[in-house]
Amino acid sequence: MTYSSHTKVFKQLEEKPAKMQKFIKHNAPKKREFGRNVKRCGICDRSGAHMSQYGIDLCRQCFRENAKRLGFKKYD
Fold first, then answer.
1. What's the predicted TM-score (pTM) here?
2. Helical axes 17-27 vs 3-13, angle rounded to 10°
3. pLDDT tens digits for 35-53?
């Protein structure tokens, strides 16, 4: 479904709350158990470029911002 068709469905189902709940239930995204999207950044909730080594669980952008505070040094 395209974006516009989702908005059309929501407009049509606003007056029918039971059907709206059923629509949301059956069209909600699946709960992921494995894969890239399961591991997310603890600060900004990004799923890409995730670093889980040493139990950090941060994306690379948040790691760069907080590396010094976490005790990492930058070597030349």
1. 0.56
2. 150
3. 888 888 989 988 888 888 8
